[in-house]
From TrEMBL:
It comes from Desulfitobacterium hafniense (Desulfitobacterium frappieri). Its EC number is 1.1.1.22. Pathway: Nucleotide-sugar biosynthesis; UDP-alpha-D-glucuronate biosynthesis; UDP-alpha-D-glucuronate from UDP-alpha-D-glucose: step 1/1. It is an enzyme of class 1 (oxidoreductase). GO terms for molecular function: NAD binding; UDP-glucose 6-dehydrogenase activity. It catalyses: UDP-alpha-D-glucose + 2 NAD(+) + H2O = UDP-alpha-D-glucuronate + 2 NADH + 3 H(+). The keyword NAD applies. GO terms for biological process: polysaccharide biosynthetic process; UDP-glucuronate biosynthetic process. The active site is at C258. Substrate binds at K202, Y247, L248, K249, P250, G251, G255, K318. The keyword Iron-sulfur does not apply. Belongs to the UDP-glucose/GDP-mannose dehydrogenase family. This is UDP-glucose 6-dehydrogenase. Residues 311-412 form the UDP-glucose/GDP-mannose dehydrogenase C-terminal domain.
Length: 441
């Protein structure tokens, strides 16, 4: 099948590379000419394990090519996959400006009986609206399919090839059979439904994951207040098969381009239709408060942050990606700088130049250099390499041994044995001790 993938981001690139690997003829188009130039030069615009190899292999096999010309990409295609971004607007609704600009180009540039597969996350009702628009006053037929993606950054290639389920919304039995054939290589439950339900499944899935993270972070805050061990609590709760271990990981909260955006989108749709969605508003509030809580811990133990040196280990919103969209690190660093703190950062993948221009930090080539002479270290990304750190060496290089593990990456006992102070709630009896250490240094 000749397939055009519109959008060379995480979803578009992964989809294009794997469909090409399945020996479809795929052209990936993006209006960002620099991005296409980089791809043609063999440089991917994103970091995603396994993707570089797939792209290179299928370019060599001539199953995959890239262009910035929409008309060229659409010429002769049998299926179009729409994978453009739909970032949140100020009112919480997805911004569909780019999405509709792409869709409107289809009527002028494609032939008859073309399948339009929507992978972009769009409000419920969009698939129907696209079908009505494309099939209005034209001599040829478009078949619209809603096929939401459930890819996790850092494991996107694996997730595409080994999904928990495939969701396809379409209205034609004939198109349903074609989708079964297209996705035949996938060994997973295949859910065929209508457009509206497929679109809602995406929002319902991501908002539930967001809910689960905010839930365990609320429990973590309670554990901190009453003296419970949140890691033991989360592990035991997750052993209940009705609940499961996934996404019961306490810490600084979620970031990235999906969970917050889709939860905001669900809230916006609920308000439009008069449905009370207060629970999802609380999910987002809890998530933001986790970031604020990190800075509160810092100020409660260090006092005035003016001139204080703070090391940040990890910038990406999660491990195995270079994505800074809605990353907790951006919010936390901005707050520390606003309070007068001096920030030094280390991330094995993310270049600090990717941070917003308003954020000024110094960078280090390794974690030890980042922590040299600082008053506190904060772990904000769960990079596996951090687990191998010599914590005693790290502690000895610091001005004050304040350690905030924003990802619960380390066992508490291991940190204490290395000589770190772990700031928690204001009632901590250790605080006067560490404050005297800070004053003495």
């Amino acid at each position: 099948m000749k397939i055009c993938v519109v959008g060379a981001g995480y979803v578009g690139l992964v989809s294009a590379a794997i469909l090409a690997d399945w020996q479809h003829n795929v052209v990936c188009v993006d209006h960002n000419e620099q991005k296409i130039e980089d791809l043609l030069a063999g440089k991917l615009p994103i970091f995603e394990p396994g993707l570089q190899e797939l792209v290179e292999l299928n370019r060599r096999r001539q199953y995959l090519r890239f262009t910035a010309e929409m008309a060229e990409a659409l010429r002769g295609c049998e299926m179009i996959i729409v994978a453009v971004g739909t970032p949140p607007a100020e009112n919480g609704h997805p911004n569909l400006e780019d999405f509709w600009a792409v869709v409107k180009s289809f009527r002028e540039n494609v032939g008859n009986n073309v399948i339009v597969m929507i992978k972009s996350t769009v409000p419920v009702g969009t698939g129907e609206a696209v079908s009505l628009y494309l099939n209005e006053k034209v001599s040829h037929t478009f078949s619209v399919v809603s096929a939401p993606e459930f890819l996790r950054q850092g494991t996107a290639v694996h997730d595409f090839l080994h999904p928990d389920r495939l969701v396809v919304g379409c209205m034609s039995p004939e198109i349903r059979e074609q989708m079964k054939e297209l996705f035949q290589p996938l060994d997973c439950p295949k859910v065929f439904t209508d457009w509206h339900s497929a679109e809602m499944i995406k929002y319902a899935s991501n908002s539930f994951l967001a809910l689960k993270i905010s839930y365990i972070n609320t429990i973590a805050n309670l554990c901190e207040a009453v003296g419970g061990n949140i890691q033991d609590v989360a592990a035991a709760v997750g052993l209940d098969h009705r609940i499961g271990q996934a996404y019961l990981k306490p810490g600084v909260g979620f970031g990235g381009s999906c969970l917050a955006k889709d939860t905001q989108g669900l809230i916006a749709q609920g308000e439009v239709h008069g449905v009370n969605v207060w629970m999802f508003k609380d999910v987002l509030e809890v998530n933001y408060e986790q970031r604020v809580h990190i800075v509160q811990r810092l100020t409660e133990v260090l006092g005035n942050l003016k001139g204080r040196k703070i090391a940040i280990l990890g910038l990406a919103f999660k491990a195995n990606t270079d994505d800074l969209r809605d990353a907790p690190s951006v919010t936390i660093i901005a707050q520390i700088i606003k309070l007068g703190g001096l920030v030094k950062v280390y991330d094995p993948v993310v270049d600090s130049s990717s941070l917003p221009n308003i954020i000024s930090v110094s960078t280090a080539d390794n974690p030890y250099a980042a922590c040299q002479g600082v008053d506190a270290v904060i772990v904000l990304t769960e990079w596996e390499e951090f687990l191998d750190l010599d914590l005693k060496r790290l502690q000895k290089s610091m001005n004050a041994p304040v350690f905030i593990d924003g990802r619960y990456l380390f066992e508490r006992k291991r940190l204490l044995e290395a000589g770190f102070f772990l700031p928690e709630r204001p009632s901590s009896s250790e605080w006067p001790v560490v404050q005297s250490m800070i004053s003495a240094r």
